[in-house]
Amino acid sequence: MRFYSLIFPFYVWLVTCQLTHAQKSSGTNSKLKSQAIQDIQAKHDAYKKIALQIWGYAEVGYKEKESSALLQKTLADNGFKVEAGVAEIPTAFVATYGSGKPVIGILAEFDALPGLAQDSVPEKKPIAGKNAGHGCGHHLFGTASVATSIELKQLIEQKKFTGTIKVFGTPAEEGGSGKVYMVRAGLFNDVDAVIHWHPGAANAVSMGSSLSNISAKFRFTGLSAHAAASPERGRSALDGVEAMDNMVNMMREHIPSATRIHYVITSGGKAPNVVPDFAEVYYYVRHPNREVVREVFERVVKAANGAAMGTETKVEYEITGGVYEMLSNNVLADVMYKNLNTVGGVAYTAKEVEFAKKLQTSFTYTVPPVDQAAKVEPLTEDKEGMGGSTDVADVSWTVPTIGLSTATWVPGTPAHSWQAVACGGTDIGAKGMIVAAKTMALTAIDLFTTPALLQKAKDEFAKARGSNFQYTPLVGNRKPALNYRD
């Protein structure tokens, strides 16, 4: 009893000290977060200008020369040390500020999609002379990430906390798997946590997984001949493609139901009266589990080889991309969700409401109310994986990673649409971008100032990944497919 009477006062003192420290830390964080919100909002117009420049460039994967250069210059002008051309990718970069631990990474994308050139108006209006458009909002993505990083740099510079901020300029997310090569090159090995975001039609923190994916181009070669005068002398490369596609389509009945297979014929000949001696088909194979993707893709390869044999053509294929499924982190998700609620959603002006309602008339399905953009969606976990794939997933298996989406598009707008491109060229897109920048900055402040929180996220990451995990990229040892959009 005497022992407890002696130790109890010490215990009370220890708990009191811990609570006092937590209260002081919480109070300090609140001040830092308020400052970050105000600073980023004050630069809304400047960041909107940068985003619209990249929206105008609309450069596709691995060709984002001007977009990457603009983000690099913005970071360099703000005191970051920029290393360009990393991981054998001319448009990839890493920008660093600060020193020591923790090292917090911010992902920045900036590639556009082919075939989606669109003006910033609520009706379909392609821009003459242009092909690509930012149908996934990566012009906003890269700019918000830079905005976040500059704010964190200023706080480090003001000695509000210590550590290192790294901005990863990641090209070719749309099918080129740019981050995979950066992971493979070891660029994330010293990073403690990674934060990212993505444009969308709602405000939500990303939970759960995504679809693993292998993409490849299958190229058939045959013999050209006059299609009427001497067809027997020809061997149609297009026949090879069509035979392959037919076999793959029959295979759909006999693969796991969660599998997704998509293809487009990118080259099928030039004239009906010439037997085509070259044809190409571009495939995606997806599933929530990367091992299933590997297996199904091998069956697609067998279909290609069988098609070539049956049509007396030759086939070769090039894997242009391959990504894992996402590894979620609940600890980081909870932190980001609280910060997103602090920031709030996107409030439209009367003019923006008019734009939004007119845009919504272009959809053939029921859409949410316009004011949904002002709300934050509940934090829910998607165990089956979202409908898309992302090379962020490979980062998530290397370092604890968390992301969110914000309402940069009118509610109900699907990604990869002309409507998404249109929204991204307006202040609706810029407002959502600023929400993302603020939320990421607040989340990073928590990670910089709360070592126990970061350690908790790392512990969850280590357990979820497993002690025997070894990273093996789905792209193998190939070099980045720098011309996959050609």
Automatic annotation (TrEMBL):
Domain Peptidase M20 dimerisation: 214-307
Hydrolase among keywords: yes
InterPro entries: Amidohydrolase (IPR017439), Aminobenzoyl-glu_utiliz_pB (IPR017145), Bact_exopeptidase_dim_dom (IPR036264), Peptidase_M20 (IPR002933), Peptidase_M20/M20A_hydrolases (IPR052030), Peptidase_M20_dimer (IPR011650)
Keywords noted in UniProt: Hydrolase
Highest taxon in the source lineage: Bacteria
GO cellular component: cytoplasm
Pfam families recorded: M20_dimer (PF07687), Peptidase_M20 (PF01546)
One Gene Ontology MF term: dipeptidase activity
One BP term from GO: folic acid catabolic process
PANTHER family, per database record: PEPTIDASE M20, XAA-ARG DIPEPTIDASE
Matching NCBIfam families: amidohydrolases (TIGR01891)
Protein name, entry field: Amidohydrolase
Source species taxonomy: Bacteria, Pseudomonadati, Bacteroidota, Cytophagia, Cytophagales
